[in-house]
Design goal:
Blueprint lengths: L1 H7 L3 E8 L6 E7 L4 H12 L6 E6 L5 E4 L17 E6 L24 H6 L4 H11 L25 E4 L4 E11 L3 E10 L9 E2 L2 E2 L8 E4 L4 E3 L9 H4 L1
Parallel strand pairs: 1-5
Antiparallel strand pairs: 1-2, 3-4, 3-5, 6-7, 6-12, 7-8, 8-11, 9-10
């Protein structure tokens, strides 16, 4: 069978992962062909939040044709003969899943805490009160300004498409934007798409889109937080797969 040939050939395969509930989610993930389907599900649970017991996996070729359901948790992934760039689609069967309802992608669905200006002004522990007190004590504080070319020199060796690591935290990703961002403030900024859903947005910040990426993978940081170089995507199963 082709599956046996696949197991004897390359040890790993790079698949594009999509999700039934998170339409904007699409990530290329490296898998060992020796991993069981259950181990694949555990790896994807850590990336998407869909529980193993509620997860069904479907394999599609690079033309979009469905090839099989990965229905046997005990079989190795290589049994299904996946090829690089094939698509592995997650179907979340749990109606109460953290991924259901669209709130991971549409923040307008999340109920936000609101307080009236009158109630806010009555509080003594607010930033507004602190800022007013600080400015009164040091009138020059509010005159401090950041220039439009702030940290421009640090962007000389950072370009779109570079692999990078963000400090602190050692979170890895790819550079998606370099330049000024008027909605964030003066100076230069770097937009990064994290490999994992550890970001704050999908590339849109305060109503302005600076780049495109899956939900919760995007972040905008100052250039001094960005290190570019050979920073490949981490694989939490890498040590187990060697």
């Amino acid at each position: 069978m082709g599956s046996h040939l696949q197991l004897q050939g390359d040890d790993f395969v790079l698949l594009r992962v999509t999700h039934s509930n998170i339409k904007s989610f699409s990530s290329e993930v490296r898998f060992s062909l020796q991993m069981t389907v259950e181990a694949v599900k555990e790896k994807l649970w850590k990336k998407t939040g869909t529980s193993i017991n509620a997860m069904c996996l479907e394999l599609y070729d690079d033309m979009g044709t469905k090839l099989s359901d990965l229905s046997d948790n005990l079989r190795p992934l290589g049994f299904y003969s996946p090829q690089d760039r094939y698509r592995l689609h997650i179907v979340d069967l749990d109606p109460s899943s953290v991924t259901s309802g669209g709130w991971l992608e549409d923040t307008s669905l999340v109920e936000k805490y609101k307080i009236s200006d009158e109630a806010y002004n009555k509080r003594d522990d607010t930033f507004r009160k602190f800022k007013g007190k600080f400015a009164h004590q040091d009138p020059s504080a509010h005159e401090i300004k950041i220039s439009d070319n702030y940290m421009e020199d640090l962007c000389a060796n950072i370009k779109v498409g570079d692999r990078c690591q963000i400090e602190p935290g050692e979170k890895r990703g790819i550079v998606k934007f370099v330049g000024g961002a008027e909605t964030l403030g003066p100076g230069f900024w770097v937009g990064v798409q994290y490999d994992e859903p550890l970001g704050k947005h999908d590339g849109m910040v305060k109503g302005k889109r600076y780049f495109d990426c899956p939900a919760l993978h995007g972040v905008m940081v100052r250039p001094d937080k960005v290190k570019v170089g050979d920073y490949p995507e981490r694989d939490p199963f890498e040590e187990e797969e060697i």
